[in-house]
Specification:
Layout: E1 4-9, H1 21-24, H2 29-43, E2 46-51, H3 55-68, E3 72-76, H4 85-93, E4 98-102, E5 124-127, H5 132-147
Parallel strand pairs: 1-2, 1-3, 3-4, 4-5
Helix pairs in contact: 2-5, 3-4
Bound molecules: 1,3,4-trihydroxy-5-OXO-cyclohexanecarboxylic acid.
């Protein structure tokens, strides 16, 4: 079976497409999923794609990816990025590389978005490139898998 990459999306990302389009664009979460599955096909990954508005779901899915021995996680924790010690602890607890992704350039936005708890334990961070950031993160995980680092 192909190695698995979990793509985990946090609160309000179910509203992509209609939510603040000047900031997040017009692509829907279904469009993002398609993009991730195409990137998964290119790099030989099975994609598990999830979204929740609840912090505990995100923690449980990160733990699940760790227990399943996933090849990696692409994590857009949305607003929880900037608030959640629980998500930081979950990412730190697993031996699976996590790439933090944001559609918008959080560093060009309000100061509270410049802080990421998740980033302290993430392997890398991609932001500001729109939905293609997810595909780039999947490519990055493929590179890490080849390098074995
Ligand atoms: C986001 C950026 C976060 O600051 C915000 O709370 C989101 C989306 C992004 O993808 O740009 O919900 O993670």
């Amino acid at each position: 079976m192909a190695p698995t990459v979990y793509v985990i999306n946090g609160p309000n990302l179910n509203l992509l497409g209609t939510r603040e389009p000047a900031t997040y664009g017009r692509a829907t979460l279904a469009d993002v999923e398609t993009l991730c599955r195409e990137a998964g096909d290119r790099h030989g990954f099975e994609i598990v794609f999830r979204q929740s508005n609840h912090e505990g779901d995100l923690v449980s899915w990160i733990q699940e990816a760790g227990a399943e021995g996933a090849a990696g996680i692409v994590l857009n924790a949305a607003a929880y990025t900037h608030t959640s010690v629980a998500l930081l602890d979950a990412v730190a607890a697993i031996a699976v590389p996590v790439i933090e992704v944001h559609i918008s350039n959080v560093h060009a936005r309000e100061p509270f978005r410049h802080v990421s708890y998740v980033a302290r334990a993430a392997k890398g961070v991609i932001c500001g490139l729109g939905p293609q950031g997810y595909a780039l993160a999947i490519a990055g995980l493929a590179g890490l898998a080849v390098k074995g680092s």
